[in-house]
Specification:
Blueprint lengths: L1 H9 L1 H76 L27 H4 L18 H9 L5 H5 L3 H10 L6 H5 L1 H8 L3
Length: 191
Amino acid sequence: MASILDFIQENTHYIEIFLLMLSAFIIGYTGAWYFTKNSSRELIKRLKKEVNNLRMQQQANNIDTIFTEIKPKIAEMVKQSQQEIIKRPANKIPEENKTTFINYSSATEKPELDFDNIGYADSSDKDDLTQISGIGPYIENKLNEIGIYNFDQISRLKREDILIVTELIDFFPGRIERDDWVGQAENLKVF
């Protein structure tokens, strides 16, 4: 026991150097581990973000693929249902639906609007059609493409014109009447 104490007293400076080096090693190792861990976190976050973006792109591609595969089937089903309705005897079709379904698909050309009735306009006469409930920017562009630019034209639409507009802009049948575009346009037009 006395020999261990003598050894420690004789080699105190070596023990102090050893302890200093050990503490420097521990501090260095801990610091390196901490900084490596933080840089790894950033790398992991970036990689997770990239993986999520790739998954989103794949899902979007899958949706596009599914839509392109299903669209012809939907079009065929709509065409068949319209043909079945047209083939029904007139006395079995409810009165309000008799003129709702017009089969333009058999015609070689799309129907044309009677601009003599609704009036002619161009982009210089343009109103903000999105003020009408049921018309968003996309539908406004579609209406402009077929020559409808202002409230006055919409307020003059008759039942036949509404059916033609519905066909030309590929809109939901009956939606124009339900949203009362004609009445809204009448209230919005400037005299």
